[in-house]
Amino acid sequence: MYVAYADKLLNFTEQNAQEIAKQWYKSLISNPRTKSYRKVREFKLVSQGEAFYRNLKKLYFDQKAYDIASAFFAKFAEDQYYENIPLEEAIYALIMLRRHMWLYAEFQVLFTSALDQYQASDSINRTVLLTDYATYTIIKRYKELAK
Fold first, then answer.
1. What is the pTM for the complete model shown?
2. Any long-range contacts for 108-115 (C-beta under 8 Å, 24+ apart)?
3. Of 4, 24, 55, 74, whose CB count within 10 A is highest?
4. 73 Cβ contact list (under 8 Å, min separation 6)
5. What's residue 58's pLDDT?
6. Integer angstrom CA distances of residue 71 from 41, 78, 96, 101, 146
7. 125 or 49: which carries more pLDDT confidence?
8. What are the tens digits of pLDDT across the range 64-111?
9. Could you give the domains of the chain?
């Protein structure tokens, strides 16, 4: 059942990737913790968010999730670094990226019953693990680029 609910959330996220990414962008540029993003063009950020949401299912279920997530988020880190985004803001953007997937699903009432919500929340553990990999990779890549 765990996979079925994860599939439901991930398919929903993939199908609505652009809309979720646009909402993430709006939050990103209005959040006081991510002020540096205000100078980055909308299409770049929406594209980055959309890529995350479209690839999340692959990252979620792949046996080599760490390797794939590392490659994906090394590129994310490079994009942020070359836009002169401070590391702490890049990490907060990642946190917001993860949150917006859940907020959008909740807003769309994807999981209607208490049981749906409970079982769907199980999938957050794997999503958190993937973003933990991302956090590690982003910090590591920033350090490499700073040398």
1. 0.84
2. 108/12, 108/16, 110/8, 110/9, 110/12, 111/5, 111/8
3. 24
4. 94, 133, 134, 137, 138, 141
5. 85
6. 23, 11, 20, 21, 18
7. 49
8. 888 888 999 999 999 999 999 999 999 999 999 988 887 777 666 555
9. 2-146 (1.10.490.10)
Residue 50 structure tokens: 């959309």
- If we measure between CA atoms, which residue out of 24, 25, 29, 51 comes closest to residue 39? 29
Backbone angles phi, psi at 84, to 5 degrees: 60, 40
The residues, ordered by sequence, that sit 6+ positions from 57 with a Cβ below 8 Å of its Cβ are 7, 10, 11, 13, 14
Q: At which residue do the structure tokens 């792949």 appear?
A: 62
Handedness of CA 83, 140, 147, 91 (dihedral sign): positive
Quote the tokens at residue 145. Answer: 């680029």
Which amino acid type is present at position 121? S
The residue with tokens 């299409």 is 43
